[in-house]
Amino acid sequence: xxxxxxxxxxxxxxxxxxxxxxxxxxxxxxxxxxxxxxxxxxxxxxxxxxxxxxxxxxxxxxxxxxxxxxxxxxxxxxxxxxxxxxxxxxxxxxxxxxxxxxxxxxxxxxxxx
Length: 113
Hints:
This protein is mainly beta and 113 residues long. It has a single domain, classed as Bacteriophage SPP1 head-tail adaptor protein (Thrombin, subunit H), CATH 2.40.10.270. It has 1 helix and 8 strands. The strands form 2 sheets. Strands 1-2-5-8-7-6 form a 6-stranded antiparallel barrel. The chain has a two-stranded antiparallel ribbon with strand order 3-4. A hairpin with a 2-residue loop joins strand 6 (80-84) and strand 7. The longest helix has 4 residues, at 70-73.
């Protein structure tokens, strides 16, 4: 794992149910954990864009690799999402990279909002 390649900061957000003053429950996203990450697309490239027919095309799926820690280990695919560069990314898969406890890889898809 190349620590120098972890050059972007990402934010994990957790989905929480919050009740208002009269007892209504609503789902909200609260900041959970922020860390540095390495970004690659599904093809293993370090850029999330490519050129096609003279145009720059953004890939909808992307992978974030972070250093292993207990907070990152607790992240799952159902109750968390990732914020990066003004975009919202839904987590599709968490890869523990052979359970060596060195890094975690989150395969994500840009949310269509």
